[in-house]
């Protein structure tokens, strides 16, 4: 099985590549090769028993060889994230829309249609704090990132209907706890308020304790991606997008979990006001009915405390090393 | 008021241009100039008291001057229609998506954001014969045309939110009775079964008498476009798309109206089978709850018999002349 990860240099792409290297198989089939693609050639995972090719470039001008003949599975995780797509309209459109078109065109050239797993986002919805959404809810995005993701879902579903590929789009929740550095996603602070105090660093919190957010852990997201790559999609019909079973938590619960794992860490959090960011994240939905995804075999979420502990286990030491923290 | 009609050579664009020429005003404001744009430079309407510029070209490479400085209203009617977008994926994407991006980019350059009236389509929905849709229904298109229109709505709504324009997207019903020649829309036969017999010509009918279709007349569509160009949009929020109040009719009712207007005309209709076309049009919705559009001042539809009589009055003689029928 030949696999490509677009956005293979991102934190989720790296975790996915590491998992494939560790398992050596996907859905019971041996992995025979892996291509990693990102803006700059991503590092190969350690210990892979299969050849890994790393390629850097522009998604919208997808270089030959990124989705080579014989590719069976493409993980399309490459994106310009929310706050950046809002700040730079042209860049967001280029990567999130033209880039997705380039993926479609590369898949069209293959002799047999590959499975494509696309990471869409709950930012493709409006809704806000006080509604429960489901897979039948109309997507009315409050930002350019969400609009571009919703449009990409449409193009990929259509490409799937036409037989160019077989897509499964997952509208990922806000992922906590992201390792590494804060990024340009408007949702970055949801991870920072756990990660930074665990690193002994101060961090800003622009919303109140009762602010709710729909989240998933990196471990759970990787499990979902692997499931989407091999699941039976024959019953999905024309709607190829899913809201996987994340969980709705509020800031107070997140801070309590942090306090359980590291007593006193909460003192490193500074309450601030950021109306522009608040306006954007307030349009995002905070709760979903995920019956459809559960019915299609997507695994339920582990408790919040496990999420914080998994970050300590999986990512705290690497993040410290990356950021030069003793 | 400076106005541009993209797709100004299409039958709806021509009717709209004729109406502006006749009225000399839009929403009570004097029309000071009109630009018509299409693949080839469209003919200017007769009797206009304002200068008309006709430009031909590729929408995706929108020439300078199509949306000149000072433009207040852009009617974006240009599209590759349903059956053609299904047959030629690249062309549909180029015109329906890249073309819409080009319109957004032209509007961004203007000193003040113009009103943009975009014709989306009910083909952006799935649903089929037996459901009633409304403005909250999720768009799950069954063809590339519908997917491209739904995505264009997302991009235009986002451009509107960003302040590049102020868009109103109308998901037009199937328009009956289209004048002129049969076109490449999968919906073409809904007009042909009225138009061709009135011209004394045989025509094919690929669905049964009880097949329902959501329709609007050219006269009603022009009224809606004019209303969308000048209505107060301040209460629309992020969702800038509307299902205007068309009407649900079945084939039997259409044939009865034809028979009332021209006795014996129905004998010119040949019942045929066309499974591919049937599959596509069967995914289109046939009934809508249009409370939102009605609340925003979009006018109710006239009876079906009036639609057939208006075709005879407005378009039968010009269509005969165009097609060389005595």
How is this structure best described in words?
- The structure is a homodimer of 326-residue chains.
- Chain A contains ten helices and 14 strands.
- In chain A, 38% of the residues lie in helices and 18% in strands.
- In chain A, helix 1 crosses helix 6, helix 3 runs parallel beside helix 4 and helix 5 packs parallel to helix 7.
- The model of chain A has no long low-confidence stretch (mean pLDDT 96).
- Chain A has a domain of 196 residues: Rossmann fold (3-Layer(aba) Sandwich), CATH 3.40.50.720.
- By secondary structure, the first copy, chain A, is α/β, with parallel strands linked by helices.
- Chain A starts with a strand and ends with a helix.
- The interface between A and B is medium-sized, with 26 and 26 residues.
Biggest sheet: strand arrangement of chain A: 5-4-1-6-7-8-12
**Global geometry of chain A:** globular
Count of β-strands of chain A: 14
- The Rg value of chain A, from CA coordinates, equals 19 Å
């Amino acid at each position: 099985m030949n696999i490509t990860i677009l956005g293979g240099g991102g934190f989720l792409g790296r975790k996915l590549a590491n998992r494939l290297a560790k398992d050596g198989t996907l859905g019971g089939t041996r992995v025979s090769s892996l291509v990693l693609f990102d803006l700059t050639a991503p590092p190969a995972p350690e210990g892979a028993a299969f050849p890994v090719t790393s390629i850097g470039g522009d998604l919208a001008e997808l270089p030959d060889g990124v989705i080579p003949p014989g590719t069976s599975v493409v993980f399309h995780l490459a994106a310009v994230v929310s706050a950046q797509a809002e700040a730079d309209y042209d860049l967001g459109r280029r990567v999130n829309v033209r880039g997705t078109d380039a993926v479609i065109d590369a898949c069209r050239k293959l002799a047999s249609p590959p499975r494509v797993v696309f990471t869409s986002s709950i930012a493709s919805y409006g809704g806000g704090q006080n509604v429960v959404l489901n897979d039948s809810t109309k997507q009315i995005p409050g930002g350019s990132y969400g609009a571009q993701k919703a449009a990409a879902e449409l193009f990929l579903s259509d490409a799937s209907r036409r037989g160019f590929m077989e897509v499964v789009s997952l509208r990922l929740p806000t992922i906590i706890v992201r390792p590494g550095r804060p990024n340009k996603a408007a949702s970055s602070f949801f991870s920072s308020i756990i990660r930074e105090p665990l690193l002994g660093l101060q961090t800003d919190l622009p919303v109140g304790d009762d602010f709710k957010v729909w989240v998933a852990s990196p471990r759970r997201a990787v499990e979902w991606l692997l499931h989407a790559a091999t699941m039976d999609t024959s019953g999905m019909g024309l709607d190829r997008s899913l809201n996987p079973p994340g969980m709705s938590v509020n800031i107070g619960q997140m801070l309590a979990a942090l306090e359980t794992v590291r007593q006193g860490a909460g003192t490193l959090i500074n309450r601030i006001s950021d109306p522009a960011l608040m306006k954007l994240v307030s349009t995002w939905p905070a709760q979903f009915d995920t019956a459809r995804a559960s019915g299609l075999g997507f695994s339920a979420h582990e408790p919040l405390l496990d999420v914080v502990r998994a970050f300590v286990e999986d990512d705290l030491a690497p993040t410290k090393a990356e950021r030069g923290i003793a």
